[in-house]
Automatic annotation (TrEMBL):
This is Rhodopsin domain-containing protein. It holds the Pfam family Fung_rhodopsin. One of its GO terms (cellular component) is membrane. The chain crosses the membrane at residues 43-65, 77-101, 128-151, 163-185, 205-226. It comes from Elasticomyces elasticus.
Amino acid sequence: MLGAWLAGTMFFVVTLIFAESLHIGRHVWDIPLDYFEEIALLSWLAQFSFLITGACTKISVLLFYRRLVKDTIGAMWKAAVIAAIVFTAAYTFAFMLMLIFNCNPTEAYWKSFDIKYSRKYTCVDTTVVNLLAGIFAIISDIYAVVLPMLMTRHFSLAAGQKVALNIIFSLGILVVAASAARTYYFYEVGHNSDVSPMIFNATAWSQLELQLGMVCASLPALRVFFRLARSNQGFSMNRSGQGSRGPMSVLPDDPPDDGYQLRNVEKKHAKAQQTSVVAAEEETGSMSPSSTTASTRHLVKSPVVKSPVDYEAYNLEMLNKGRSRYSITGRERSDTIGRQPSHRLSQPAMDRLPP
């Protein structure tokens, strides 16, 4: 499609020059004679760019059909697609050669409109050539529309998907209609004395045909584009919706943000409840460290933190117990020296919180 876009851009520029600078569309007797040579040269370039654009667009569509039915249908349909590609490339190349060797020398195609041009030349009447080129273009357009409908009619698709696919393929009928109108006006160029309006009409329909062809050829790729745009939009909405709660989870396996720290605390305490064995100690210190034996060890059952309120209460209790180990001066109290922090035994109950 890149070649079609480049050649189509060239054709578009030529049509702009035709309309703005060379007064194509006016009656032929209203156009200065000095413009005729330039009009003929730009017409020659426009026909080249038209052939290249049409061929690249149709071959691109046919290659898409070939990828679409790869390993799904019989060899006959694949051969039909390849035959269409060969036919399109062959007639395009043939008419490009006709355009080059239409006059001998080639420059006589446009130089002959200059009254000062004295070199001998011969040119072939392009009326029949233009008509044949239009007929071959219409045949290839119809082929590109009908072929995918016949190939995909046996696909096991949902009814809605099959209808949408056929609608996309049917849009090529618009290209066929534009090609038929262009062919008519090109035929009139060789049979009408007021040739300038005929050239203008043929150029306008050619421009419409090329642009419609490129749009129709790009429609299958637009499905991927809209899918990506929709996913990016959902990504942005998800990010804005989670911005007030914290960082957004990027990976699909990341845990959600709400209560994430709370569940981590629950997991840690559940693990400690199953695996940790601590020595039982009395708060009064009546038991000596040496009297603690394996028989006095037991599993400590810690309450599970189920809400942010429980978690906050637990933190306050731990802070209070840490303060009780030190005097006002900041030194460790003598009755707690050598003891392990008692908060390892269990979590505090809610009713033991300090006022």
